C-alpha cells in the first residue's frame, strides 16, 4: 500500500514538474525567460555582448536590474584579468535539462571576447520554490595553465532607490576567542552604500545567509553553498539607486590546467512576502526540497540519541554496555561513542584496553538492542604521536587548531585526503558504523605549504571544496548508507553546502538548557529544524531539562544513565515519548519564533505548525516572577476549531484558530525553571 502511494506521489510530482516550468528562449534577442509558476527570472545577452539578469521575483514584486549599470551573475578574475558586467561575451550554446529533485536547468555557455575563457552559467528553478539558484563554471580553453584569482558566488545588483531595507543575519556558534551562539541581528541598511558584511564559512562569524525586506515586507533572501570563508556584503546606495549583493571567495588562487574547469560554488536568491519567519520558512522548504541530504529515516528522524561524553574519555565496554541497555529501554534509537574510543586522535583503531572484545562486538550489541551505532571522528586532526604523523610529519596544515592536543591535517593535500577517506571507510566497515559524528576545530584549515599538492595561495578553496567537502563526499559515495553529523566543537560551518553532505548539524556543544534554546532559536531561521541538533548534559529529570532540548534535530542525551534513579528514568522515558510524537511535525512545519530569543529572567516560546493542522509550541520559563504565560499561536486557520492539550497540564480545551491567534491560551509555568509543551490539533 505504501509502495503504491509513493509511486502515485512520484507520478504526480513528475507531471507537476512538467507543467510547472515555462522556459522560453527568444533567439532573436538572446533573451531567456524562466518560470516555475511561483518565481520568474529573465536573463539576456545584449547585442553588445553584455550578459545580465534583467529581473527576477514574484508576480507582485519583480526585482529589476538597475537602469544605470549591469546586473551580471558573472564576476571573477583569471590571472587578475577581471570578467564582470563590462565583459563582452558571445553565445556558444544553450539548452535546458531536468535536474534531480524536481528541478529545471537553463544552461548558457558563453565565450569571452578576450581571453581564452568560456563560462557555463546554470539557472535552476524547482517545483513550488520561490528561489533562483545560480552556478557558473569557468573553463580554461587555452593551452596554458591559468589561475582563478577571484570569484563571486552572487554578484547581483537590483534597482532600489528609496526603500529603506531591513536586514537579518544569524551568527554561528563560535567559542574560540569569540563568544557567539546563533544570535540574530536586525539592522537597517545604510543608504549611503556602507556595506553590511557577513563573514561566513568554517570558523566564520555568521551563517551563509541574509534576508532583506522593505517597508511593505517585500523580501529577498540570499544563501551560498560554500564551506570556506567568504566576506559577503549587501549594500544599498541611494545615490546609485542600487541594492548590491557580493559573495566573494576569500583569498582565492586556484590553478586550472588547459582544458580544465573551475566550479564557482552555487548561490541562490529567493523571494517572499512577510516577516523573518516567512523568509526562514521559504529558505527551509527550498533547502529540504532542492539541496539537503535527505533525512535517513522519515519515520524515526530526527533520532533520539545517547552520546558517551557524560563519561568524557573515562569509559570502557562494560560501562557502555550498561548504559546502552538503559538507553534502549528509554527508547534511544542511536548510540554514539564520543571521543576516547580510539587509541588516539588520528589513530583510528579501537583502544584494546577499553574494548577487550573489540569495538565491533560492542557495535553488534548496540545493533542487537535495536539502535544505530555512531562514532566520533575528527577527519582533520591527528595527535603528534599518532603513527601517521610520525611517518608523515609534513601532513599537517601550516596552522594548527590544537584540538585536544592534536595537530591539524591539511585535507587539501592529496595523500592526506586519500588516507583520511580510506581510514573512515575502514572504520565504518570494521566497526559496523551507521553514523559519524564529525568533530574537530575549524574544518577548513589554513595551509600555505609549498610542499603540498594544492597551491600554496589557495588554502581557503582547496581546504573546503577539495578538502573536507571532498572527503565527506567520497566516503558518502563509497558508503552511502552512513549518515554524517556536522560538528566542529559546535555548529560553526553553518552553510548551504554543509546541508548537502550532512543529515544534521549540532548548534551549540553541550552548553546547557538555555544555550540549547538560544542556538535553536537562531539556527531555525535559515535552516530546517532537523539541522539544529542538541546535546543535553543535564540529567533529564525535569521538564526544563528535557523540553529545552526537544525542538529541532536529533536530541542527544549525554548524561550517565546508570546513575539515574528509577523515578528519573520513568520521567525521561515519558518525555522521550513526547519528543517522538512531535518530531515529525516539527521537522516538516513552519517555525514561528513567538518571543524574543531565550535569555535569563524571562519566558521564551517557539512553535512549529505543520500545514496549519498541527501546532507544537514549547514554552520555557527561564526565570522571572511570572508563573503563567499567555501564548498566542501563529500559523493556524482562524475559522477552524482546534483541540488544545498540554504535555504537563491535564486541561483539554476546544478553541477556534482565531482565539488561539488573538486571545491566546494561558500556559502554567509554576517553577522558576519550568517548561510546557502546547499542542493544537485541527478538528
Ligand atoms: Zn596544505
In helices, the fraction of residues equals 10-25%
CATH class descriptor name of the domain at 2-291: Mainly Beta
Low-confidence stretches: 1-12
**Total number of helical segments?**
12
- What compounds are bound to the protein? zinc ion
Number of strands: 45
Structural class: alpha+beta
Q: Please, could you describe this protein's structure?
A:
There is one protein chain. The strands form ten sheets. Strands 8, 9, 10, 11, 14, 17, 19, 20, 24 and 25 form a ten-stranded antiparallel β-sheet that branches. The protein is of the alpha+beta class and 683 residues long. Helix content is 22%, strand content 34%. The two termini are 26 Å apart. A hairpin with a 5-residue loop joins strand 15 (173-174) and strand 16. Among the domains are: 2-291, alpha-galactosidase from lactobacil brevis (Beta-galactosidase, Chain A, domain 5, Distorted Sandwich); 591-682, Golgi alpha-mannosidase II (Immunoglobulin-like, Sandwich). The chain is built from twelve helices and 45 strands. The model is unreliable at 1-12 (pLDDT under 50). The site of zinc ion has 8 residues, from loops. Residues 397, 410, 412-413, 447, 449, 452, 454 line the site of zinc ion.
Amino acid at each position: 500500500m505504501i509502495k503504491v502511494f509513493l509511486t502515485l506521489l512520484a507520478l504526480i510530482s513528475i507531471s507537476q514538474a512538467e507543467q510547472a516550468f515555462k522556459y522560453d528562449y527568444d533567439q532573436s534577442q538572446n533573451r531567456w525567460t524562466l518560470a516555475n509558476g511561483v518565481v520568474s527570472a529573465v536573463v539576456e545577452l545584449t547585442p553588445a555582448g553584455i550578459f545580465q539578469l534583467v529581473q527576477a521575483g514574484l508576480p507582485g514584486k519583480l526585482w529589476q536590474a538597475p537602469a544605470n549599470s549591469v546586473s551580471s551573475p558573472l564576476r571573477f578574475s583569471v590571472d587578475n584579468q577581471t570578467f564582470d558586467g563590462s565583459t563582452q561575451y558571445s553565445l556558444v550554446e544553450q539548452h535546458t535539462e531536468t535536474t534531480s529533485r524536481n528541478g529545471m536547468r537553463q544552461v548558457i555557455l558563453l565565450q569571452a571576447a578576450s581571453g581564452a575563457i568560456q563560462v557555463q552559467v546554470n539557472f535552476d528553478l524547482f517545483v513550488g520554490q520561490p528561489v533562483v539558484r545560480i552556478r557558473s563554471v569557468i573553463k580554461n580553453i587555452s593551452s596554458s595553465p591559468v589561475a582563478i584569482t577571484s570569484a563571486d558566488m552572487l554578484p547581483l545588483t537590483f534597482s532600489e532607490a528609496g526603500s529603506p531595507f531591513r536586514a537579518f543575519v544569524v551568527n554561528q556558534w563560535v567559542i574560540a576567542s569569540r563568544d557567539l551562539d546563533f544570535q540574530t541581528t536586525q539592522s537597517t541598511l545604510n543608504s549611503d552604500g556602507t556595506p553590511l558584511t557577513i563573514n561566513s564559512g568554517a570558523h566564520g562569524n555568521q551563517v551563509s545567509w541574509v534576508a532583506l525586506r522593505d517597508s511593505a515586507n517585500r523580501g529577498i533572501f540570499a544563501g551560498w553553498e560554500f564551506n570556506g570563508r567568504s566576506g559577503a556584503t549587501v549594500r544599498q546606495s541611494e545615490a546609485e539607486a542600487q541594492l548590491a549583493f557580493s559573495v566573494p571567495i576569500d583569498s582565492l588562487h586556484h590553478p586550472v590546467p588547459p582544458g580544465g574547469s573551475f566550479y564557482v560554488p552555487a548561490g541562490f536568491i529567493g523571494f517572499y512576502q512577510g516577516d523573518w519567519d516567512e523568509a526562514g520558512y521559504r529558505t527551509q522548504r527550498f533547502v529540504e526540497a532542492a539541496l539537503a541530504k535527505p533525512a535517513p529515516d522519515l519515520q524515526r528522524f530526527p533520532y533520539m540519541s545517547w552520546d558517551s561524553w557524560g563519561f568524557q574519555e573515562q569509559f570502557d565496554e562494560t560501562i557502555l554496555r550498561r548504559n546502552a541497555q538503559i538507553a534502549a529501554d528509554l527508547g534511544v534509537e542511536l548510540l554514539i561513542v564520543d571521543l576516547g574510543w580510539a587509541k588516539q586522535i588520528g589513530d583510528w583503531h579501537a583502544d584494546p584496553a577499553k574494548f577487550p572484545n573489540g569495538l565491533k562486538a560492542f557495535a553488534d550489541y548496540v545493533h542487537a538492542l535495536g539502535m544505530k551505532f555512531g562514532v566520533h571522528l575528527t577527519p582533520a586532526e591527528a595527535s603528534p604521536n599518532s603513527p601517521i604523523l610520525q611517518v608523515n610529519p609534513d601532513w599537517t596544515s601550516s596552522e594548527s587548531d590544537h584540538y585536544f592536543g592534536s595537530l591539524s591535517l591539511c585535507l587539501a593535500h592529496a595523500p592526506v585526503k586519500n588516507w583520511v577517506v580510506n581510514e573512515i571507510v575502514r572504520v565504518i566497515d570494521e566497526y559496523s558504523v551507521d553514523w559519524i559524528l564529525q568533530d574537530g576545530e575549524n574544518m577548513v584549515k589554513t595551509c600555505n605549504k609549498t610542499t603540498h599538492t594544492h597551491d600554496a595561495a589557495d588554502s581557503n578553496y582547496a581546504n573546503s571544496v577539495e578538502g573536507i567537502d571532498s572527503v565527506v563526499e567520497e566516503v558518502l559515495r563509497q558508503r552511502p548508507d552512513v549518515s554524517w553529523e556536522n560538528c566542529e566543537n559546535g555548529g560553526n560551518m553553518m552553510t548551504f553546502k554543509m546541508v548537502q553532505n550532512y543529515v544534521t548539524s549540532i548548534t551549540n556543544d553541550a552548553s546547557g538548557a538555555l544555550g540549547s534554546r538560544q542556538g535553536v532559536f537562531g539556527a531555525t531561521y535559515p535552516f530546517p529544524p532537523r539541522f539544529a541538533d542538541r546535546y543535553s548534559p543535564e540529567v533529564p529529570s525535569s521538564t526544563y531539562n528535557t523540553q529545552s532540548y526537544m525542538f529541532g534535530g536529533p536530541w542527544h542525551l549525554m548524561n550517565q544513565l546508570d546513575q539515574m534513579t528509577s523515578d528519573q528514568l520513568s520521567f525521561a522515558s515519558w518525555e522521550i515519548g513526547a519528543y517522538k510524537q512531535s518530531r515529525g511535525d516539527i521537522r516538516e512545519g513552519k517555525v514561528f519564533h513567538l518571543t524574543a530569543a531565550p535569555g535569563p529572567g524571562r519566558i521564551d516560546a517557539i512553535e512549529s505548525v505543520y500545514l496549519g493542522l498541527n501546532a507544537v509550541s514549547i514554552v520555557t520559563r527561564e526565570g522571572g516572577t511570572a508563573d503563567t504565560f499567555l501564548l498566542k499561536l501563529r500559523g493556524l486557520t482562524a475559522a477552524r476549531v482546534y483541540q488544545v492539550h498540554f504535555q504537563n497540564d491535564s486541561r483539554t480545551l476546544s478553541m477556534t484558530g482565531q482565539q488561539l491567534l488573538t486571545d491566546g491560551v494561558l500556559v502554567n509555568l509554576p517553577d522558576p525553571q519550568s517548561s510546557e509543551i502546547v499542542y493544537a490539533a485541527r478538528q
